[in-house]
From TrEMBL:
<feature type="transmembrane region" description="Helical">
    <location>
        <begin position="343"/>
        <end position="363"/>
    </location>
</feature>
<dbReference type="GO" id="GO:0015648">
    <property type="term" value="F:lipid-linked peptidoglycan transporter activity"/>
</dbReference>
<keyword id="KW-0812">Transmembrane</keyword>
<dbReference type="Pfam" id="PF01098">
    <property type="entry name" value="FTSW_RODA_SPOVE"/>
</dbReference>
<feature type="transmembrane region" description="Helical">
    <location>
        <begin position="312"/>
        <end position="331"/>
    </location>
</feature>
<feature type="transmembrane region" description="Helical">
    <location>
        <begin position="55"/>
        <end position="73"/>
    </location>
</feature>
<protein>
    <submittedName>
        <fullName>Rod shape-determining protein RodA</fullName>
    </submittedName>
</protein>
<feature type="transmembrane region" description="Helical">
    <location>
        <begin position="120"/>
        <end position="137"/>
    </location>
</feature>
<dbReference type="GO" id="GO:0005886">
    <property type="term" value="C:plasma membrane"/>
</dbReference>
<keyword id="KW-0472">Membrane</keyword>
<keyword id="KW-0133">Cell shape</keyword>
<feature type="transmembrane region" description="Helical">
    <location>
        <begin position="80"/>
        <end position="100"/>
    </location>
</feature>
<feature type="transmembrane region" description="Helical">
    <location>
        <begin position="191"/>
        <end position="209"/>
    </location>
</feature>
<dbReference type="GO" id="GO:0008360">
    <property type="term" value="P:regulation of cell shape"/>
</dbReference>
<dbReference type="InterPro" id="IPR001182">
    <property type="entry name" value="FtsW/RodA"/>
</dbReference>
<dbReference type="GO" id="GO:0051301">
    <property type="term" value="P:cell division"/>
</dbReference>
<dbReference type="GO" id="GO:0032153">
    <property type="term" value="C:cell division site"/>
</dbReference>
């Protein structure tokens, strides 16, 4: 009886500590996403199936978030080798038993559903880096050798993702890595030196390291109008969609780009274009503000919690949402190459939804397990 009272009291305390503002923002984004996924697919005969699957992913993601919320995040700190092993195992499974689409092998089939393991691996990368850095670099990351050694635990993971090939997810992992070490307190000099080295290597990497379709994405990004009916079609149509929205938009479910199927994959890569067309600048700006508020509330506890591993999780979580926001919105405006990165909680996609809810669960776990 006494144990039951303790458990109940502990549960009440944890529920009280859950950040309700983060949940409010997340489910506001989910609601907006659901509306515009329907808007983007309502002319598709499979729209009912798409919406049913979308709701399934939201429910499953919510359950996953709850599980991660009440699991003490500090237990992950001692499981770094397991996390590395699981990450590599998932990516090897994709390599040898994955499904190939559009020239890339990134998915595994589970019944009628396809999952993209690299989305879940990003969550594990946050935990791996957080545990490794806080254990081995209590005095800071001070030179190029330190930066290289910190990257080693996720180096095989990054290479396996590049092999798929999935340049977008690899860049996301590198961005998470750089963001986490920067916020942790790396000296700027080694980052500047490595940045200059990257600039020098950019040309040979472009010439010999990228596949033809990846080069096409870059040239299309620089000048989409050169092949307006081919590779530049998506970006040009996305710009038209955003421009058509004006200040207040054409109205929900009244966007011509999605209704007339001018914009392929509107419910995934180009969901922001549909929002911009139907809600205009006011609506699209409001969505961006919601994301920045989400990032702000994720980072806010880092100023008061003492656990360094917890702080690193918050840094990594914020970097994931910031990367996807900048890349996806920039892509729809023609300011970034098309990389296929979704707008988290808005774009249709099971793997990204579950992984995003995992990250929010970790953030909530950091907030409630402060004793």
């Amino acid at each position: 009886m006494f144990k039951n009272k303790q458990l109940t009291r502990r549960l009440q305390t944890n529920l009280h500590r859950v950040d309700k503002l983060i949940l409010l923002i997340v489910y506001t984004l989910v609601a907006i996403g659901t509306i515009f996924i329907y808007s983007a697919t309502k002319e598709d005969p499979k729209t009912q199936s798409i919406i049913v699957k979308h709701i399934f992913w939201v429910v499953l993601g919510t359950g996953t978030m709850i599980a991660f919320t009440f699991y003490d995040y500090r237990k992950f700190e001692k499981k770094i080798l397991i996390l590395i092993g699981v990450s590599i195992g998932l990516l090897l499974l994709v390599k040898f038993a994955g499904q190939q689409r559009l020239g890339a092998q990134r998915w595994i089939m589970i019944g009628p559903f396809s999952l993209q393991p690299s989305e879940f691996v990003k969550v594990m990368v946050i935990l791996i880096l957080g545990a490794f850095i806080t254990k081995n670099y209590k005095n800071g990351i001070n030179n190029i050798l330190d930066v290289i050694v910190v990257f080693l635990p996720i180096s095989v993971i990054t290479v396996l993702i590049l092999i798929q090939p999935d340049l977008g997810s690899a860049l996301a992992i590198i961005f998470i890595f750089l963001s986490m070490i920067f916020l942790y307190g790396v000296r700027l000099r080694p980052l500047i030196v490595m940045g200059l080295m990257a600039c020098v290597l950019a040309v040979p990497v472009y010439m010999f390291g990228l596949k033809s379709y990846q080069k096409t994405r870059i040239t299309t990004f620089l000048n989409p109008e050169q092949d307006i009916r081919g590779d530049g079609w998506n970006i040009v149509q996305s710009k038209i969609s955003i421009g058509a929205g004006g200040l207040t938009g054409t109205g929900i479910f009244k966007g011509s780009q999605s209704r007339l199927s001018f914009l392929p994959e509107a419910q995934t890569d180009f969901i922001f274009s549909i929002i911009s067309e139907e809600l205009g600048f006011v609506g699209s700006a409001s969505v961006i503000i919601l994301y920045f508020l989400l990032i702000f509330f994720i980072l806010r506890p880092s100023k008061v919690i003492e656990n360094e591993f917890g702080k690193m999780i918050l840094y990594g979580a914020a970097s994931v949402f910031f990367f996807h926001l900048i890349v996806n919105v920039g892509m729809t405006m023609g300011m970034m190459p098309v990389t296929g990165k979704p707008l988290l909680f808005l774009s249709y996609g099971g793997s990204s939804y579950i992984a995003s809810f995992m990250i929010i669960g970790l953030v909530q776990s950091v907030k409630i397990h402060v004793d």
